[in-house]
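ingest -> validate -> predict -> emit
validate: passed (alphabet ok, no gaps, 280 aa)
predict: started
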Amino acid sequence: MTEQRKRILESVKYIKHNIPAKLKPKAALIIDENYGLPYGINVLKKLDYKEIPPKFENVEKENIGKLLFAKAGSRDILIFKGRFFFYEGYSMRDIGHIIYIMSLLGIEKILSIDEVGNLNPRFECGELALIYDHINLMGDNPLIGENDNELGIRFPDMSNAYDSKLFERIYKIFQENKVKINESVYLSIIGPQTETEAETRFYRDIGSDVLGYTLAPENITSVHAGIKFSAIGLITRDLIADRMLEDKRSADEKKKEEQNNRRYAHTELNKILVKIIKTL
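emit:
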């Protein structure tokens, strides 16, 4: 047994010991630590990430976040509230660790919600990005190194990385609830620094609509583990190159607008999030 699999099984054993009786989740949600869940999601129990073995080493901060055992109506769901970022010092395999945990807990479908910057002039901040593909410019991924065949095959097929059937279901919910649909290619970069004007022009030229720091490793690991993956972005920052050149606001003013955009996008998504979860 590989050392990687031993670490995953250690986490799975602890979680299984703590999962509420009769809860049999087949779907999972990944959100940032500050994401407020909507009415209609009933949290039955919480585990702090720091309680779950094993510990990650050489990182910027303590494991911050919670694993929530929850229900959305009759639908059982695991919610990973808080995520690991490459720029914080976590390895790619650390980031992929939670996905493999989900796989061994019986999770079959994932919805990941991420804050994103906007590269597409047809989109507006405060809106939602419905992600159907990605470009990975992080220079790394969770599959580099020894492959454990019990976790997944050596060369996973990425042609349907963001599951098309899940995309169609979520698309339909957007339509039915009159939520603007911004079909998006997500660009995954390392961060944490903001992007230069030249970089944003390049990112747009290669076909990206939005960018962020986390989805690609989550997605790649999900495909490797055989889990169907979907993703929605909260558009909080404007990265249109021409607008960036004209923007003379202070960093504090930009931060305040970003917070407002996050609130608008969060409110918009929470109107339909329970409906989306029920389709997973």
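The longest strand covers residues 228-238.
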